[in-house]
Amino acid sequence: MTRLLINLTCFFGCAFIGASMVLFTGWPLAVVAAGLCFLATQHVGAGFARRGDKRAVAREFSQIRKMTMEFQGQLDEVRDRVGALDGLIDERTNAQSRKIVAELKVLESLMREFAGRISRSAAPAALPASVAAPATGPASAYLRSFGNKNELLETIRASLEENRVDLYLQPTVSLPQRKLRYYEALSRLRDAGGQVIMPAQYINVAAAAGLMSVVDNLLLFRCVQVLRRLATKTREIGIFCNISAATLSDAEFFPQFLEYMAANKDLSGLIIFEFSQDTVLNAGNAGERNLARLSDMGFALSMDHVETLALDFVRLKGIGFRFLKVRAETLVAGMGGAGAAVAAEDFKKLLSRHGLDLIAERVEDEKTVLQLLDYAVDYAQGYLFGEPRAVRDDSARPAVSMTETAPVIPFKRAS
Fold it and tell me: What are the residue ranges in the chain where pLDDT is below 50?
């Protein structure tokens, strides 16, 4: 464009000078003058054009430098992000490796301990005579089907050796919304014929033979696996994992149990360790220290199988308890027979002052729910909201819905 303007200016300038020369000096001198003028204006125009080209080139170089600096900045940012990602991957890989190593160590110790206890209890006389069979109830019926305690012990050992230990989950819902908030994990054994052996049927015999820590820790590993799957969808659902008195007082195994949980501290907001009232009241100094160490890692504690409500709630809070499970019938009956210091309608306030949430268990009908709402109960659990169901080992990742009141992990019904 600049060159075109210069050429047009030269053309019209030369034409004007030529016309003027024709008028005053004639054609020959006019032609010569016009030629000289054209050459001069071309020279001047070329100078202006070169000067314009230099400015354009300078502008282009400036833009190139600006783009180069921007690209370099983006490249540095990408390099920083890649470095941070590498660090994060290394950190997560190392953390996962530590968890795997800790789990393998616990499993190795568990299997070694299991093998030793199996060998020590191999003889029928290994089961103490003090372990009496219940006179009535499902445990006595199951025991009668085997003829004696030692046959039941052999069945328990075979179930553990052949990994016939199933994880069952029962939902706990919030009130009044009835949203799924927790599961309670329960263990069931199966005999060779597929018949389910309930905890009430095997606990006394297994504990006397020193096998309850095996059952508890198989349950714990299953709980951790389920939580890992749940955490990929939501971190709003936790699991209550039952621990027996035998495991809490096991001086050989419990330190390794703590080491395993230390490697899984990221689950501290999702797993709640549950102990019976009898276990807690008879834990002793060593047992209380073990409970406090779990609490110090960030794991909440829960008490179930509550027979008396005459409790030291300050002490419970200090140990690390955050949940108290009370049978619904105890609450709706006024709690007079449970030794409570307050009426049922004031019990929730008492617990709240000590940082405890109340869970009503064994809720079976809607009438009971209405009464529990009058007492401002936080959570409820029972067959009304869902029965315990077995988790399949081959189940895919669960699709969790916070509005469900029944378990949402793929389940199979017990045979």
Answer: 4, 21-22, 30, 32, 104, 119-136, 139, 395-415
Question: Does a structural domain hold residue 86?
Answer: no
| Structural domain contains residue 82 | no
DSSP state of 183: E
Q: How far from 125 is each of 84, 92, 154, 204, 214, CA to CA, in Å?
A: 62, 50, 12, 16, 21
DSSP string, 278-312: HHHHT-HHHHHHHHHHHHHTT-EEEEES-------
Write the DSSP symbol of residue 194: -
As given in the structure block, the two tokens for residue 323 are: 């949940």
Q: What are phi and psi of 121, to 5 degrees?
A: -105, 20
User: How confident is the model over 9-18, as pLDDT tens digits?
Assistant: 555 555 555 5
Residues 39 and 105 in one domain: no
pLDDT at position 377 = 93
Q: Which domain holds residue 40?
A: 2-71
Distances from the Cα of 343 to the Cαs of 142, 303, 327, 375, in angstroms? Answer: 40, 20, 15, 10
Q: Which residue type is seen at 138? A: P
The answer on 208 and 146 residing in a single domain is yes
227 and 306 in one domain? yes
- Helix H or strand E segment including 360: strand 357-361
The answer to whether residue 254 is domain-embedded is: yes
**Residue 222 belongs to a domain with what CATH number?**
3.20.20.450
pLDDT at 324 (0 to 100): 96
Amino acid at 326: V
Q: Nearest-CA neighbor of 413 among 230, 188, 157, 202? A: 188
For 159-194, what is each residue's pLDDT tens digit? 888 888 889 999 999 999 999 999 999 999 998 888
User: Which among 119, 116, 221, 240 is positioned nearest to 163, based on CA atoms?
Assistant: 221
Whether 298 and 265 have beta carbons less than 8 Å apart is answered as yes
